[in-house]
Amino acid sequence: MPNYQCPITNGEKIVSNEFPDFSNYGYQVTRELGHNRAGGRVTYLATEINTQQQVVVKQFQFARSGASWSEYQAYEREIQVLKGLDNPSIPRYLDSFQTAAGFCMVQEYKDAPSLLVRRRWKPQEIKQIAMSVLEILKYLQNRIPPVLHRDLKPDNILVDRQMNVYLVDFGFARTGGGEVAASSVVKGTLGFMPPEQLFNRQLTAASDLYSLGATLICLLTGTASTEVGSLMDDAGRIHFKQRVSHLSAEFVNWLQKMAEPNFKNRYASAAEAQDALIPLDVLRPPEPPKFAVPAFLGLVAIGAVTLAAVTYNKQVVQLGETQQPSPLDPNSQVLFTSELNSTKNLDNISLQANRVYFYVSFSPLENREYDSVCRILDGAQREVYTGRANLRASGNRLTTWCWYYFDKKVDKPGEWVFEFSLDGQNMVQKHLTVLP
């Protein structure tokens, strides 16, 4: 079988790789994305010849690796799991085919590097990654039967420039209701496997939380995924507190609970872990100078909506006796965006866009805590979300945002209404056209 040859960039070094020819199956390989030579697995970026769509082809080279063709059953299980999933944060299964060397699976391509690619993440960004992964795990755990990923680690979490997060590689995933017994063969990645998985005991929804906790600790401490074992003691407990003195005690305790060796001491589910994470400040508050007020650094979320500190200047709208919002001030800069920290205002957005952010600011305010409410009505004017949280104003201003995660199976197009109020008096209301 002929091979393509194509130079690719590996860091600053130009190397030449031989790529397999999948043209008979409708795909042309353009470059290698990753490989596990020992396991006989190679992942390629390819082009679907008829549509010119970029896809990912995962090749399992059974003949080269010496693996038995019986392992095909494991990959068939992965296909069955992926076929049952429909979530924009999980690349879709597209196709599969057998070759002389083994077996290939084709998935949707997401232009996003994995967390294995080292970069300087801000603690607030790491919290956002945690929130997004927990949202994906909530989706998996709410499936009937629920799905356990069993190999959650930096390699399998992708994050693009807009902070969209994707979970990949369901090769070890298992489905089942309630507790799911592990197979007779231990599968996973050392350092990220919870003890119950390592010792081949029953797995629960808390098992993937341990792996996420270990991943977040690696990001926050700058520890390479191959060195996570250096943080562990003989009992399997991860020690990291001395390396994160800049983080708040509450956030550190949350991380510690995520990575507890005994699953009974962890959060019971992704939903419980997310609810606990919602009100936590990430950074340790700085020591304020005399007569100064510390800056608001909170990150708050409830369900599918998140509230966080940003830096836009917008005007407050006062509620009248009718409890109906007044028209927005012409100089107001209340924004809808599809990307975090973007200043581009949207008048409409598609249900396919995954999520929308609603930015708002209140001023002037007393520097105290306020009872905030974010309320969202869909295109049929049904209330799809109401969330309450306590937020603190600083510098006579409270600037925050909400985000909503669209579910194209449930949500309806039309004119959506986003409202945000403080203490039931100050309110902004803005309309957004949501397209099919």
Write the layout of secondary structure elements.
Elements: E1 4-10, E2 13-19, E3 27-36, E4 41-48, E5 54-60, H1 62-65, H2 72-83, E6 93-98, E7 103-108, H3 123-141, E8 147-148, E9 157-159, E10 165-167, E11 174-175, H4 195-198, H5 205-221, H6 249-258, H7 270-277, E12 299-302, E13 305-308, E14 335-337, E15 348-350, E16 355-362, E17 369-377, E18 383-392, E19 398-405, E20 414-422, E21 426-435
Helix pairs in contact: 3-5, 3-7, 5-6
Summary of the model, kept short:
17% of the residues lie in helices and 30% in strands.
Walkthrough of the structure:
With 436 residues, this protein is of the alpha+beta class. The protein folds into 3 domains: 4-108, 2-Layer Sandwich (Phosphorylase Kinase, domain 1), CATH 3.30.200.20; 123-277, Orthogonal Bundle (Transferase(Phosphotransferase), domain 1); 299-435, Sandwich (Immunoglobulin-like). Helix content is 17%, strand content 30%. It is built from 7 helices and 21 strands. The protein has helices spanning 62-65, 72-83, 123-141, 195-198, 205-221, 249-258, 270-277, and strands at residues 4-10, 13-19, 27-36, 41-48, 54-60, 93-98, 103-108, 147-148, 157-159, 165-167, 174-175, 299-302, 305-308, 335-337, 348-350, 355-362, 369-377, 383-392, 398-405, 414-422, 426-435. The strands form 7 sheets. The chain has a 5-stranded antiparallel β-sheet with strand order 3-4-5-7-6, covered by helices on one side. Strands 15-21-20-17-18 form a 5-stranded mixed β-sheet, with no helix packed on it. β4 (41-48) and β5 form a beta hairpin. α3 packs antiparallel against α7 (270-277). The longest helix is centred in the first third of the chain and has 19 residues, at 123-141. The chain starts with a strand and ends with a strand.
